[in-house]
Amino acid sequence: MPRDGFQVGETVELYIESLAFQGLGVGKKDGFVFFVDETSPGDKILAKISSLKKNFGYGYIEKLIEKSNSRTEALCPHFSFCGGCQWQHVKYEEQIFQKEKILAKTLSRPTVKVIPSPNQYGYRNRIRLHWNGEILGMYQRKSSTVFPIETCKIVFPGIANQFEKTRERLKREYSGKPKQVDLFLGESGVINTQITNFDDREYPPFSQVNFEINEQLKKHVTNLIPSSAESILDLYCGSGNFTYLAKQKIDSARVIGVEFNTTSIQEAKKKYSGIEFFSEDVGKFLKKWKETLAKLTVIIDPPRTGCHPEVLDSILKLSPRTIIYVSCDPMTLKRDIQHLQKSSGGNVTLENALGFDMFPQTYHVETVAVLNSSSY
Ligand SMILES: C[S@@+](CC[C@H](N)C(=O)[O-])C[C@H]1O[C@@H](n2cnc3c(N)ncnc32)[C@H](O)[C@@H]1O
What we know:
Blueprint: E1 11-19, E2 25-29, E3 32-36, E4 44-52, E5 56-66, H1 92-106, E6 114-115, E7 126-131, E8 136-139, E9 146-148, H2 157-160, H3 163-174, E10 179-185, E11 191-197, H4 211-224, E12 231-235, H5 243-249, E13 254-259, H6 262-271, E14 276-279, H7 282-288, E15 296-300, H8 309-317, E16 322-327, H9 330-343, E17 348-356, E18 366-373
Parallel strand pairs: 3-5, 6-17, 12-13, 12-15, 13-14, 15-16
Antiparallel strand pairs: 1-2, 1-4, 2-3, 4-5, 7-8, 7-10, 8-9, 10-11, 16-18, 17-18
This protein binds S-adenosylmethionine (SAM).
């Protein structure tokens, strides 16, 4: 069915204006928006239309007419194929600029700065590979087909060096049995392997994937805690990444961490004293909580899906003065901020947002948003 006069299979000339949150380049033809994979802002291309929706279409590059200055060579031999990275072909300064634009637009702010990562490659301290019973690799781009991976340029070289050995082990022990395989750096610098069933939602204890930028993230979150805080509630606290610094900043404060991964909480309890850690679902914890928490700051760092509206409402019932929301998905962050603003009758407002480039070479970005309440 033609949309706005366009047909699937037709070729259109596009100028790529920007990159969208899912990583695709954005170009317009007669005002109609097209999303095209592996393009860079400033590219002039001929795009073949692959599908059409009511208000936009998708295409792929048929010909690169004029290569943008924002392009660079991708380092990884798997780049065009692999579902892991989307932006290796874009210069790093441009990646940051595009993330800043995406955040400003999503959060309706005039500008939002993004702090660059000190390391742009070799920064990941963990990777999840897939073993389909025969092949160990990553998912192909836009597909759940596994392709064999020889290397990964964004992961620590020490982890990438383990791929072959791991493949041999899976062949010996799990031939014909699909598995997911997590390789991650443990506390003592040893690379750990965790093998689970394909659809298990079992993850190794969470840690931020990029140590260097995490240091800056922690500093920022700690600075945002008002020195007048008497209680600090760190929800989705993992193994206490922010919690221990909150306690260090205000030793006299009551500091509570909540996280449902029991291993993470065990680690946190072993490492840090003077903090109350609870191994529980955040929603259930908040429903049961009856005590008053004076001059409260809440830190929230949920998974990509964000917070359930009931969780946000339970947080508001605790009358926090400050909410520090750490998010790895600008869309769910925006949704949850809107809910907090609406549910509080406008008492809670977004004061500030800052991005951290936790995930170079991908469209993902970590954001810290600060919301203050005018009524407490
Ligand atoms: C993005 S991580 C943040 C962890 C920690 N703040 C950090 O910086 O390392 C989200 C954490 O939330 C935990 N989590 C996810 N859903 C949860 C829930 N419903 N209740 C409690 N914890 C949850 C995960 O296990 C994970 O550790």
